[in-house]
Design brief:
single chain, 109 residues, mainly alpha, 1 helix, 48% helix, 0% strand, elongated
Amino acid sequence: MFTPKYPTPDTAPPPATSPVVPLTPPAESSTPAVPAPGSSAAVPTASARPAVQLTPAGLITVAVGGTAVVLVVGTVLVSMLLAVALTGVSVAVCAVVLCLVLKDLRAHR
């Protein structure tokens, strides 16, 4: 159960047999060099397998990780909103107290 499962080795050709043709400086002629239709200059094709392969355990891990990120970000945003609301309420209470104190000072004169 806990033993690693290694993927099969790639089937890509080794670097010594790469189908890439090295660049050569252009010849003096003005005609472009076009390979003959029957030449062995092969065009590299894209691989048929997908770039990312997820197993069922990998999908569950991604789903749990995404859920954790959403919950953490939501918690941070809610706590910031609560902090702003508490600050606004405390400023409003201070303003009401100052207004009452100023009204009381003006009434005694």
